[in-house]
Amino acid sequence: MPEIKNKRKAREVIIYRDACKACGICVAFCPAKTLGTDELGYPIVLDIETCTACNLCVDRCPDLAIEVIKETEKKP
What we know:
By secondary structure, this protein is of the alpha+beta class.
């Protein structure tokens, strides 16, 4: 049986700190616990490998301060 590869992954998570007010919503909604906070309460990426690119952080951010760049699928 061939392996099914339908898991989404993020290549990069960009946090626009100038726009972020450190509300913690993105961290709270991250189901993979990819995001954490620094000593000032701003979001940081703990482990990019765990990010499933679900975009819950992006969708919930009231300040549009986070962006998820998805891996592109390679053509055979």
